[in-house]
Amino acid sequence: MRIGIGLPSTIPGAVPEQVMAWAAKAEAGPFSSVSTIGRHVYDNYETLTTLAVVAGATRRVRLITAVLIAPAYHPVQLAKEAATIDALSGGRLTLGMGVGWRPDDYHATGTSFSDRGKRFEAQIATMKRVWSGKELGDGIGAIGPKPHRPGGPEILIGGATPAALQRAGRLGDGFIAVPDTLDAMRQQFEAVEDAWKAAGKSGKPRFANLVYFALGPGVGDRAAAYVRDYYKPGGPEMQNAVAGSIMTQPEAIKGFLKAVEGIGTDEVIFVPTLSEEDQLTRLADLIA
Q1: What's the CA gap between 61 and 93, in Å, rounded?
Q2: What domains sit in the chain, N to C, each tagged with a CATH number?
Q3: 8 A C-beta contact, residue 3 and residue 268
């Protein structure tokens, strides 16, 4: 099981030097990937732009959007940007995508919220056509560049709804689970596998888990404050649930890793709640 690390690019106040320092330390090991969270209406760095910059400063780690709110982007533009990062990084891009739940991200980009699921499925089909090198249609020629990975970047679909699980199995290469109970994640994995098999696909989907963390003395309140701010649009119930999921104890993290490996997780992505570099160092020392 691989272990990836999120960049502090979504944490308000994080400066470029911190983001790049995290990427450099992740590249040195023991992490398998660096990732970003996608959101428009927040004080964060844009996810694809961040990964494009990080791609030029790294050579080994994978680059993951975990996750990008895809229907808030134009499908052709998103396909071209993703293909560019994938080509220039030597095939290291994984597109974690979902539909999200915040209307403001859609309102801010002038895109429709109510039909986002339907548009997302059409968007994936368009993106795959762009990546195939075929003409787009209606007199529109092929759109480059050619991705490094045949067929385009790996697609992992995130979410917790039945529709998201079905899409992950039918349309994606795998699934990203949001913070939840072990039993819930096991059931989600099973649902994705069922959809995968029903679609007649060979092999098996790739499974990733997202988990928030904060390590060190006296970090719990600050970590919870950030998470509560980020999830403020979801109301107190969601804020409390996510804040309560933050992993702060080394032994709990070790136990969690063993447990999720047991249910078939291929990669755990630790999402930071604080931007100080010691957070990455503490985690690296813990999992080394």
Answers
A1: 9
A2: 2-287 (3.20.20.30)
A3: yes
